Amino acid sequence: MEVVDGAMQAVDGAIDNAKNAMDNAIHRIKKEVKLQKMKSDSMCRLKTAHNWQEVKENVEDPDAPSYFWRAHTVTVLLVLICCLVYTALIENPVNDSIYNAKRGFMAALFFWVTLGMTIMPDGPFLRPHPALWRFTFAFGVFYELLLIYILFQTPVDARKLLKYIDGDLGEPIPEKDYGGNCRLYDGDNEDPWHNIKDKVDIFMVAHLAGYWCKTIIFRDWWLTTVISIMFEFLEYSLEHQLPNFSECWWDHWILDVVICNGGGTILGVYTLRWLSMKTYYWRGLYEIPTYRGKIKRFFGQFSPHGWIEFTWNPLSSFERWIAIVCITIVFLIAELNTFYLKFVLWIPPNHILNPVRLLFILLWGAVSLRETFQLLDDPNCDRLGRQSWVMIAIVVTELLICIKFGWSTITKPLPRHIALWWVLGAALLLLYTVVKFYLLKPYYIPRPEKENIRMGSPINTPTKHKGLPGEVDGDGHDVGEDNTEQAGDKNSLSQAGLFTNQLREDKKDL
After folding, report:
1. DSSP labels for 1-44?
2. What's the predicted TM-score (pTM) here?
3. Measuring CA to CA, which of 114, 116, 119, 335 is 20 to 30 A from 431?
4. Contact 500, 457 (CB under 8 A)
């Protein structure tokens, strides 16, 4: 009998130790989860970039009210009316329908852009002049209207429309394949380094300058690097649709990612450091006594009026996380549109339309990111900016044109192994989002147990949070009421446990 009692006590002690160890482990896990969530919430409370309440950028420079900072609405209106009067009453008409169509189109564009530069509201940027940013916004609205018009045409008519801009457009162009022989050193050729020389062209400079500008407008090297790597994966995935995406492995990862994109990003980081440490103190041009100072001030007009660091904090809240993911997707689609528009509209890669479009995309993107960051960071900003609205509309309309005009190319299915990798990546992204912003949210974490003094057997150990009178749980029940009703049962269980433990001690003494 004593052996049995000793075995029972050993088993009870082992169970008690195991329960204590499990309780301690669960308590440490809950404590760590709570600590990590508190860190994440504290990041959301950081005003990382700007005190939006204290500092409001003024639309006037120290030179104001100078001639170049006035609106001149009446003067611009009179000049435009005089031009129209001259065209209608004085100028001799030309019996050339194509010439008149081009001229009328350009006149309407000039009228709209001038109107936008004059009466449209200012954007967030001041330098070199607010009129420049009003011009880019007005041209963005015109470009979106032009894209909508092209969307309603057939591919043949859309390509004919481009002939009004340049007679050489609208002709089929061969797609260049950068893949093929991927040997760095080809000993079978007269020039063994011909593969590398063929890949080194003007587009490397464009890549370098493009990612330098992207780093500046994002003001974050991490986002720029993510976009760089993701676009290379997109090129791998879509090379069966566009031969232009077919490149050698060292062209993808060494020339593009490391040298061009990485080099541009590093230059952008150093530029950001210089802009963030620079002292922004502006004096009026006429207040500077020396000619050297006036020249320096003149070139300083093309630098920012002030500087705001973009600390995106994507993991600080679910809204910011979704916003960063959407920003990345929009910029990746904008880059893909560059290649697909050339393909469906038959625009040569070295045509002037391509760098002009990229330049405006850069300007629109800079303003859009500034507006988006203020929307995320400024508690008093509750609407999407004008340029952001137009930018999203432009990217979506370009994508629809690529899908409509290149349906036979766009609908080519992805290879099975590539599709599985993308499904896996999307699943992991979704899983991370659910775990980070749903499972680890504070009100989904069980409330920690209160520390209680354990007496007697494990039957007396509290296993549930002790509610207070009037406390309501997640289902709407009164926790305090339940605890009151069950108090008698718990007390009886506690007494029974003490009595059983006492009997065991008595038997041990005997």
Report:
1. -HHHHHHHHHHHHHHHHHHHHHHHHHHHHHHHHHHHHHHHHHHH
2. 0.73
3. 335
4. yes
